[in-house]
Design goal:
Length: 291
């Protein structure tokens, strides 16, 4: 039995890296019977059947997993937003943050295209940077033409996914960090305000002494897997204040003597973050029941 990690899944084959070698493996039939799908990022044991080939026999317990993209055991998610084309959206950023927090994955925020915006917009983005840093997030402002070597430390010794809407520069970022990738990116359609990514499968690629998932990012941004009671815990500044609410299980909505609402009134929690919380709260509350 040999141990390794799945670094690519393609056409029913799983490519498992063990040491410096990569083995093309199939999954045992027992996985199909149990309806278990091996995922990129899984730590596995496998039997070597022929040179460079094998069968996966066991999958170690995952610390986390995503459905779209299908990947497991992620250390961090780099959320890439752009200052312009498409315009920076704190609502969309908070949507990504909630989804990532719900999976117990550490989020890191990059805001791109800082070199092509006006001075006023630059100040606006810097204010958002201060807000999110105050919550405890790492926030990096990056320019299109600037050398991005200083970002290497974010990826070193970590397994990362890069999330963000189309057109923000996910492939451009990876190409800048590792020029040999030559990832394909289509030109941004100015009429649609979005770009197209040509990735067809999930693969962990070595970037800056770490592993990064080359995927189209989050293809689903709904909250179907988040329960109403869990939502506030996906906002760190609310999570740390909930013990100070008068009522246990306070939803920070209509309850009196709520520490979160008080923090909003006193400017300790950004009002737009709280408005986004209420918006997501209503969305989860009104979704159709699952059976």
């Amino acid at each position: 039995m040999t141990k390794g990690r799945i670094i690519k899944a393609l056409s029913g084959f799983y490519y498992v890296k063990s040491g410096v070698d990569i083995y093309q493996c199939r999954g045992r039939g027992v996985f199909r019977k149990k309806k278990i799908n091996p995922l990129v990022g899984d730590f596995v044991t496998f039997d070597i059947s022929n040179p460079g080939e094998g069968y996966i026999s066991t999958i170690e317990t995952r610390k986390n997993e995503l459905i779209r993209p299908p990947i497991a055991n992620i250390d961090q998610a780099v959320i890439l937003s752009s200052a312009t084309m498409p315009d920076f959206s704190p609502l969309l950023l908070d949507r990504f943050l909630v989804l990532i927090e719900s999976k117990d994955i550490e989020p890191i925020i990059f805001i791109s295209k800082m070199d092509v915006i006006s001075e006023d917009l630059n100040k606006n983005i810097e204010k958002y940077q201060q807000d999110y840093k105050a919550i405890g997030y790492q926030v990096e402002l990056i320019s299109t033409k600037k050398e991005l070597n200083h970002l290497d430390s974010y990826f070193s010794d970590h397994v990362s996914v890069i999330a963000g809407q189309s057109g923000v520069g996910k492939s451009s970022l990876l190409n800048a960090l590792k020029p040999s990738l030559l990832l394909k990116t289509d030109d941004i359609s100015k009429s649609l305000g979005r770009g197209k990514h040509t990735t067809r499968h999930v693969e962990l690629i070595e970037v800056s002494n770490g592993l990064v998932a080359d995927t189209p990012g989050f293809s689903s941004l709904d909250f179907n897997e988040i329960e109403l009671e869990e939502l506030a815990d996906c906002f760190p500044e609310m999570r740390e204040r909930k013990e100070n609410c008068k009522f246990r299980g306070c939803m920070h909505n209509k309850e009196p003597k709520c520490a979160v609402k008080q923090a909003v009134e006193e400017g300790e929690i950004a009002s737009y973050r709280y408005e986004h919380y209420l918006s997501f709260y209503t969305e989860i509350q009104t979704r159709k029941p699952r059976y």
